[in-house]
Amino acid sequence: MRDKLRKWREENYRNSEQIVDVGEELINEHASKLGDDIWIIYEQVMIAALDCSRDDLALTCLQELRRQFQGSHRVKRLTGMRLESLERYDDAFKIYDAILQDDATNTAARKRKIAILKAQGKSTEAIRELNEYLEQFVGDQEAWHELAELYINEHDYAKAAFCLEELMMTNPHNHLFCEQYAEVKYTQGGTENLELSRKYFAQALKLNNRNMRALFGLYMAASHIAASPKVSAKVKKDNMKYAAWAANQINRAYQFVINGVADKYTMKMNTDTLKKWAKKKLLT
């Protein structure tokens, strides 16, 4: 059981129900045999218990951690997280402010404050806090992505695109960032944005040729460009080809599913064909 928890912890699994089941039994029956591992297990189980609305178990773990680590910022943050789960947001905010007063560089406390603002539906305040945070911690990719999501929710697509551009600069091989950037550009609309959208859907497919969402996006972007009265005959013809190619790949994928043979091999598209299209047309 200890090894299971360690594996889930190291691989950052958020399988909270399983962690609670295994962790509670381990704590109740073998706590005295776990040595120093017990403290990280208490923390892991407590966070999982909060996810599962098991405040009784979360409080038990928190009390043990308080006894061992009095005054610890980490334990104070866990206390704040429990208050959040009870919707005592003001009390949690005070705890995080106190932590930041002692240590202004405590990123975990600042992120918890942003999480509270989101939970309260205060998107404008959350965006402001995230921007201030990124002025100091510009390399925090998780924060950039969170800010992009907030801007998308507020329909501020230009700023969302900027955040995703920052992410693509530091993660050029991440197909999901390319796909999301393409979706934002598609939503903005207009021929220029649609062409950029098509190119980044193609790039996402080049990075991961099993990304069906990007394949659908490529089809939609190319179809809209082909249907536009503002583009030249050549652009219209080229995009009709791109849309037809994407539609064919989508039909193939669905046919595999219908035939009951969809697996990691049959779902894979023709990589060489995709690269050829990308190199010659889609990414130029």
Automatic annotation (TrEMBL):
Which sections of the protein are TPR repeats?
141-174
Q: Which gene encodes it?
A: EMC2
Membrane topology term: Peripheral membrane protein
Provide the EMC2 TPR-like domain boundaries.
Answer: 77-185
Q: Which family does it belong to?
A: Belongs to the EMC2 family.
Q: What is this protein called?
A: ER membrane protein complex subunit 2
Which Pfam families does this entry report, sorted A to Z?
TPR_EMC2
Cited SUPFAM superfamilies = TPR-like
- Subcellular compartments: Endoplasmic reticulum membrane
Q: How does it assemble?
A: Component of the ER membrane protein complex (EMC).
Sorted UniProt keywords: Endoplasmic reticulum, Membrane, Repeat, TPR repeat
Cellular component, GO annotation: EMC complex
- Return the Gene3D superfamilies for the record: Tetratricopeptide repeat domain
Q: What does the protein in this record do? A: Part of the endoplasmic reticulum membrane protein complex (EMC) that enables the energy-independent insertion into endoplasmic reticulum membranes of newly synthesized membrane proteins.
